[in-house]
Amino acid sequence: MGMRTVLFAGGVAMLLALLGTRYMIRFLVNRQYGQFIRDDGPTTHHTKRGTPTMGGIVIIAAVVIGYAVAHLATWTPPTASALLVLGLVTALGGVGFLDDWIKISRARSLGLHSTAKLALQTTIAIVFGVLAFTFPDERGLTPASPAISFLRDINWLHLPVWLAVIWIVLIISSWSNAANLTDGLDGLASGAATMVFAAYTLINVWQYNQSCAWGDAGPRCYEVRDPIDLAAVAMALAAACFGFLWWNASPAKIFMGDTGSLAIGGGLAALSIFTRTELLTLIVGGLFFIITMSVVLQVGYFKLTKGKRLFKMAPLQHHFELLGWSEVTITIRFWIICGVFVAFGVGLFYAEWVVGQ
Question: What ranges do the domains of the chain cover?
């Protein structure tokens, strides 16, 4: 297992997303499975009514098939860490699919009830959290660590396993909903996710090269399980989002829907947990964090001031729409912001290793 697996996974996933989305659009249009638009949103979005949604199905399928084909091509076995990430991505994508399907079948902009949606997300996250502390390898390492992590595990923030599972549930819930909130403009979430997953590919490859599993590992080696296989999953996710972006860029021919956004958030959460970079993800995924905080601040300010608004509309991208910015301008500028955060996060990760040598 090595870089060939990573490259195979990315190449196959991108090809499948690029070609598969085209046929998915045709399939959805023929059955009139289109998006319903919120009446309280920007009026410019009303032209998007009827655009095919649930494109996230293609992203998930491309990632899973890309990973499987890569392992068949290199004749290497899958690892527990990678299978858990793929399981979380698929399961949360399933919750998003239910949400999207209810919107389409009932011809409304509101899908799965918020309580039911949260209950399903929490259940999936608990199962993932419990399984993440099983499957020890020959060194006794499990996919997840009970310590809260930044650039690596923070030893003095070592949690009991039951509390670590709660922490994992919080991370998964936060990032899946952050990705969901970011998916508000054509190409915004898919483009940003491409950059963030590409960053995690680099992080995983670096952790593999500097793994404590190697006999000549230095004092700053990484105690991470299955880093190169996690790199294959991260590469497949980046490539699938990139291929999907061809059709999702403005004017979008298809939306990823909650199917895609919840799956992307789950993938980001799982990779942050398994690479021991949970708090670093606040920087690498800084755009997602800022957009989520805009909603938190809007709600908090509204309640504290009894009806006043901090932004014209939340999430933040819609605030700029109501200021008169074009959708393409907002998306590109937010991509630039995302790229700056990604570069800073990866740079910080590498700098910590260099300084420690």
Answer: 3-285
Mind listing the pLDDT tens digit for each residue in 144-200? Answer: 999 999 999 998 999 999 999 999 999 999 999 999 999 989 999 999 999 999 999
Tokens read off for 105 = 């079948």
Structure letter (DSSP) for residue 155: E
Phi and psi dihedrals of 156, rounded to 5?
-80, 0
- 202 CB-contact burial (10 Å; exposed 0-12 / middle 13-18 / buried 19+): middle
In the chain, how long is the greatest CA-to-CA distance?
62
Following CA atoms 185, 190, 192, 194 in sequence, which dihedral angle do they give, to the nearest 10 degrees?
-170
Q: DSSP characters for 249-305?
A: SSSPS---HHHHHHHHHHHHHHHHHHTT-TTTHHHHTHHHHHHHHHHHHHHHHHHHT
Which tokens is 82 given?
């990678």
What is the reported pTM?
0.94
- Measure CA 77 to chain center: 24
Report H helices in the chain.
Answer: 3-30, 56-74, 80-105, 114-131, 161-182, 188-209, 227-248, 257-274, 281-284, 286-304, 316-322, 327-355
Q: Token pair 């410019």 is at which residue?
A: 44
